[in-house]
Amino acid sequence: MMHAYSEYYLSDAKKHLATAFDYAINKVGIEADIFARFFINSEYARLFECGSPQVVAGMSGYELASEIILHFYPLKRLPKKVQFSLAKSQEYWAGWALAEYQWYSARSFRDIFEHISLPEIINMYPVYHEMDITRFIEHLDEVCSQLGTETKLKKIREANGFSQSQLAERSEVSLRSIQMYEQRKNNIDKAQVNALFRLSRVLGCSIEDLLENPLAI
């Protein structure tokens, strides 16, 4: 299986995402689902997914969380950096386990959170934190492999209030192509880049947001 990035960075990546979640949720007081949304809508989620050494290894979890929070709340005063503790919170475990799963599966964080929320992952702590990580991975694989009836393209299109015809007209991508992508009869991951670009521009999202498995191509 192709992993998201080199295993060389995995230990740091797990520790830093774990610390970021723990700090943002428990020290800053941001709700878990809100911070998860901040994370996937920031550039750091994409850089983390690609294994950018600057992000997965070069930034501490405290720095990662601070950068994400200050992007959305520029004037927010953040508490001081927390000291290392042997006692790990369930939020810390959730970040640690999630980083492992993202590396293992090469799925985007957005894709993962579309199938299971961060609060749901945190609530898995009592059952899974003492198990081998492979049990957690197997469970998330099962959850994330369950295809919904709607593709990402359809979800984003409907969230923008476009009909298929309106999207076709504005993007200059044929109505038939859009229908085939949304019905999964054509694989959008193999669509031409110029078509994906036009769709993403109209929908106000990235090309990766439209792909069903962006890191597998």
Task: Explain how this protein is built.
The protein has helices spanning 10-27, 32-40, 43-49, 53-56, 61-72, 90-105, 109-115, 118-122, 125-128, 133-144, 152-159, 164-171, 175-182, 193-203, 207-210. With 217 residues, the chain is mainly alpha-helical. The chain has 2 domains: 7-144, no CATH class; 152-216, lambda repressor-like DNA-binding domains (434 Repressor (Amino-terminal Domain)). The radius of gyration is 18 Å and the shape is globular. It starts with 9 loop residues before the first helix and ends in a 7-residue tail after the last helix. The model has no long low-confidence stretch (mean pLDDT 89).
Main β-sheet: number of strands, strand sense, barrel status? Answer: none
When the domains are counted, the total is 2
* Large-scale geometry: globular
Compressed to H and E, one letter per element, the order equals: HHHHHHHHHHHHHHH
The DSSP helix count reads 15
Which whole number gives the mean pLDDT?
A: 89
**Extended strand count:** 0
Q: What would you call the structural class? A: mainly alpha
Distance between the first and last residues' Cα: 13 Å
Unreliable parts: none
> Helical proportion?
55-70%
The value of Rg in angstroms is 18 Å
- The fraction of residues in strands falls at under 5%
